[in-house]
Amino acid sequence: MPTDTHRRRASHTRGRLPWLALGLSLLAFVASAEPVTVASVTSPGKVLRVSLQLDGGTPSYRVERFGQTVVDASRLGFQLRDGRLDRDLAVLGQNTRTFDETWEQPWGERRYVRNHYNEVSVQLGERSGAKRRFEVVFRAFDDGVGFRYHFPEQAGLDEAIIDDELTEFAIAPASTAWWIPAGEPIHYEYLYQRT
């Protein structure tokens, strides 16, 4: 037969259950709001890693060097003449490859240059509306990363007029970046700036 002590404990526990359920629901919601990594590629020597993430259909990328973030989550996409192309996207497919060649240059600091990288090409498409598609191709070298966009031929997109590129480069606070001012008439003859 339950005693008064048992009744008080049961009542106290019942009072906590709704709060526990609410806390677990909020935790599940916050966890689901995190960006999802949909593709990544690591350099041949495992020095650098670049990953593509989708956060509710919005793409971003990040770069790590030996596990430390050097470029934090940075947006990808375009403002086209007929609408934005950076939201409500889904991964349609992806391909990976490795490339390794050495070529000879006629002059320069080194006679032979090794071009060695791992690549991932991710096809993205709109889930609704015009259902336009594009690819983001990431290359990871041991001394840097690069990426480019590619618009494949597709029905309903005879031309793409780009009004603005929405690509960001969110350099992590503890990182160093070297860059050249690009807004000047002769933008290739300036000294590098360090940030």
Structure description:
With 195 residues, the protein is mostly beta strands. The protein has one domain: Beta-galactosidase, Chain A, domain 5 (Distorted Sandwich), CATH 2.70.98. 15% of the residues lie in helices and 48% in strands. It contains one helix and 14 strands, in the order H-E-E-E-E-E-E-E-E-E-E-E-E-E-E. It has one helix spanning 4-32; strands at 36-42, 48-55, 58-65, 68-75, 78-80, 83-85, 89-104, 112-126, 133-141, 144-150, 162-165, 170-171, 178-179, 193-194. The strands form four sheets. Strands 1-2-3-4-12 form a five-stranded antiparallel sheet, with no helix packed on it. Strand 2 and strand 3 (58-65) form a beta hairpin. The protein is globular and about 95 Å long.
List low-confidence stretches.
26-31
Average pLDDT confidence is 86
How large, in whole angstroms, is the Cα Rg? 24 Å
Shape: globular
Structural class: mainly beta
Helical content stands at: 10-25%
- Do you know the CATH topology? Beta-galactosidase, Chain A, domain 5
How many runs of DSSP E, i.e. beta strands? 14
Number of domains: 1
How do the strands line up in the largest sheet?
A: 1-2-3-4-12
Secondary structure topology:
Elements: H1 4-32, E1 36-42, E2 48-55, E3 58-65, E4 68-75, E5 78-80, E6 83-85, E7 89-104, E8 112-126, E9 133-141, E10 144-150, E11 162-165, E12 170-171, E13 178-179, E14 193-194
